[in-house]
């Protein structure tokens, strides 16, 4: 995760290598302590990011509240 200001700090890297659930750590002192994401179509995500998508990944994520 990235800090919400220009030039802000980056959180720990989370490598996504297959379908499944991943936990992104938050920032010390932030209201968000972690974020769980589920990848359902890794092959399609990889292909899109590497070959055709030039925007922000946040534009293609589906957000669900648990």
Q: Can you put this structure into words, describing what you see?
A:
The chain is of the alpha+beta class and 66 residues long. The protein has one helix spanning 42-52; strands at residues 20-25, 34-39. The model has no long low-confidence stretch (mean pLDDT 77).
Sheet with the most strands, sense and barrel status: 2 strands, antiparallel
Order of helices and strands: EEH
DSSP summary: helix tally: 1
Distance between the termini: 20 Å
Based on DSSP secondary structure assignment, what is the total number of beta strands? 2
Rg estimate, integer Å: 13 Å
Give, in spatial order, the strands making up the sheet with the most strands: 1-2
Q: Helicity, in percent?
A: 10-25%
Report mean pLDDT, rounded to a whole number. Answer: 77
Beta-strand percent range: 15-25%
What structural class do the secondary elements suggest? Answer: alpha+beta
| Uncertain stretches of 5 or more adjacent residues | none
Shape summary? globular
Blueprint (SSEs and pairs):
Layout: E1 20-25, E2 34-39, H1 42-52
Antiparallel strand pairs: 1-2
In a few lines, what is going on in this structure?
This protein has 1 helix and 2 strands, in the order ββα. The chain is of the alpha+beta class and 66 residues long.
List keywords for this structure.
2 strands, 1 helix, single chain, 66 residues, 17% helix, two-stranded antiparallel sheet, alpha+beta
């Amino acid at each position: 995760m990235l800090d919400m200001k220009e030039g802000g700090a980056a959180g720990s890297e989370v490598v996504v290598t297959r379908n499944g659930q991943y936990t992104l750590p938050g920032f010390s002192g932030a209201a968000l302590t972690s974020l769980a994401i589920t990848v359902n179509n890794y092959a399609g995500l990889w292909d899109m990011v590497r070959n055709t998508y030039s925007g922000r990944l946040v534009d293609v994520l589906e957000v669900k509240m648990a």
